[in-house]
Amino acid sequence: MSSSINPTEFSAGKPISLLRYLALLTYESLLIFAVLFIAGLLALPWTQGKPSIFYTLYLVGVIFIYFAWHWHKGHTLAMQAWHVKICTLDGQPVSWEWALIRFGVAFLSIACGGLGVFWMLWDKQKRTWQDIASRTQLVHFPKN
């Protein structure tokens, strides 16, 4: 899968369903658990197993870099497995600035009991809060 898609290809895809979105969230949570496990092990010599605000910020930073890097490429590992791409509404890769906005709004979306995710049930374009705020869309491309 390429890192960006042209606007014609983007418009050929269709917005993902809530079921596919929830499957993506489940898969992503497993991947994030593994990434945080490794990040925690790498930080263990400095933290000595003691929680701190710096350790928390470090882990949040690791999560952001994981998502932002992959969103900029067009998909995370979970998105690739589910044949989903992310890009801006004009078919461009997600910039680091928009990734930061998407990341922050996604956190708020889930912190509100998932209301921002379930918003796609009422939005005519099937967008979540993070899609709307970052001017992006998750699009499903069936396996060729």
UniProtKB/TrEMBL annotation:
Domain named RDD: residues: 20-134
Protein name listed in UniProt: Putative membrane protein
Coiled-coil boundaries: none
Membrane-spanning ranges: 20-46, 53-72, 99-122
Superkingdom classification of source: Bacteria
InterPro entries (alphabetical): Pra-immunoreactive, RDD
GO cellular component, one term: plasma membrane
